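Sequence and structure are kept together here, with a separate record for every protein. A complete record is shown below as an example:
=====
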Amino acid sequence: MIIEDDEALGRSAAAHIGRWYGTVHRLPRPDDDTLREHLDQSVDAVAVVSRDDIVALRYALLAEHLKPGIRLVVTLFDRTVADEVSRTVPNCTVLSMTDAIVPSLLAECLAPSYAMLQPDGGGVIAVRREDGATSVEHLHGRALAAHAHDHPRASFRAWLRSLGTSAKALIASLAALSVAFSVDIALGVLVLHEHWTDSVWNAARALTTIGSSPAAEHGPGWYKVLSAVSMLAVLVLAAIFTASVVDRFTGHRMTSILGARSIPRRGHVIVVGLGQVGLRLSARLKDLGIKVVAVERNPQAACLPLARSLNIPVVLGRGGDRFLLERLSVLRARGLAAVGSDSLANMAVAVAARAVAPDQRIILRAGSDEVTTDSQSLFRIGAVCDFPRIVGAFVAASVLGAEPSSVFVAEDRTCALFPDGQVVDLAIWDTRPTDPRQGANESEAGRTASDVEASAATS
């Protein structure tokens, strides 16, 4: 039984279980009475597939309450909640949809010759695809970051363009105040014939609007005019500088001028859409030593505080905005991943990025729908990661007891990587009993789990 609030994911998981000898029932957002009615029947396993942790947790606890001890598979993003559910309900297997899709996204972002990259401690487990075959390799954790310097070095102009309005005002006003301070010192020494220490002192007094040099009263007329203009300009610049500093400290800034949360300008990956998938992908890239910048449209997105705690720079804006893409140095980026939950919005971002950077590597999170297929046939959008297909197979295999480490697509074949390092083409599980009545009389999960595990062991 599959309890779902996402039709595409539920349909994909049900289709895989159906091909692997299973009889599956889908319940889209059932109420308590409907769920109780179905659980009163013979049910071997329950899978809760939802993008919302609260919804998934509620259905999992309700299923356990109505039928204690039943095999449960539930998708949860929050690791704290997932660990607590696993500890409290021993018969529950907790999955993360992001853990299923992120290895495929990592491979497309960093090394298209691989079908998936899965971080494992200090290294990376990689599955290479070559001539229709797959092979497992173990890479060093920082090996994938070695190509970051292959991109052209960014200029000072690119760094300045990457800054926001407040940061630009801060830099510009600080530079202007520094120039005014230096000019005032030079005029004090050369025109007023002051000692350099007195000139510095008087210039600082003028810069802080305390007062000017006493010798200025006896200076030439042009100096007095220039000094007056300078003091008025300093008054305005000091106000701008102070306001910018206050804004930087009191505002909830997701980027910084320098440091860990500054916007990278070459050899980085741009992640558009800071949902669960975008956040986990950004965190994995950062762990591998790859510079990353995220783009999020919603200033109230739930993952923004988590990104801030992980020092992931986030720019608020629309990922399909040409000026924003240029600000993020898309031409010097290692790749752009559009991983929002809306496939159409992801395609719009990919098309805009393709217009700005025709040769850029673009990764698109999408589903196996007609819109994506038709768009790909018209022009090359980018590498498409089929989210429902990968996650559906991952959930189905876990429901049937196979427990793969990851699921990925290689040469249009859905494959799974198991903890022992074995790669299995899941097409070998797509067999049915010759007598349909035989399949109907057997248990949904018991027979299927044993068959799946046997197939995985012999393949």
The first strand starts at residue 2 and ends at 4. Confidence is low (pLDDT under 50) at residues 432-459.
